[in-house]
Write a structure and sequence with these properties.
The protein has helices at 21-27, 35-40, 68-73, 106-115; strands at 3-6, 11-14, 52-58, 81-83, 93-97. The chain is α+β, with helices and mostly antiparallel strands. The protein has a single domain (3-101), classed as Ubiquitin-like (UB roll).
């Protein structure tokens, strides 16, 4: 059973293989969205591009491959950014929610999250 480590929230969440990353976060009560996304997210269709996550750790194939929607919508974003609504969890990973507005201490938070063993 994979574990998703949410850096900003300081939480490790177990999920099923193949579970949608957006749904994993939302069912745990985690906030994926900034103000724009709170006011007008598309409900997981990949159209509003407000459910960004930055994949900071885990295996190369921890998530399903980029979808066509992501290829189109994320062309000018960092390579480690994904749309959580388009991702299926395959193995344990570490993500930063809302990377477009990182916390001031994000580098330290990322290092601390990566420094702890990730359950597989």
């Amino acid at each position: 059973m994979p574990t998703v480590r949410f850096i900003r929230e300081g939480r490790d969440v177990k999920c099923e293989v193949g579970e949608n990353l957006r749904e994993v976060a939302l069912k745990e009560g985690l906030q994926l969205y900034g103000l724009k996304g709170v006011l007008g997210n598309c409900g997981g269709c990949g159209q509003c591009i407000t459910c960004f996550v930055s994949v900071e750790g885990g295996g190369k194939d921890s998530l399903s491959p980029l979808t066509e929607v992501e290829n189109a919508k994320l062309s000018n974003r960092p390579k480690n950014w994904r749309l959580s609504c388009q991702c299926l969890v395959k193995s344990s990973l570490v993500v930063l929610t809302k990377p477009q507005a990182p916390p001031p201490n994000s580098k330290a938070l990322i290092q601390a999250a990566l420094g702890k063993d990730l359950p597989t």
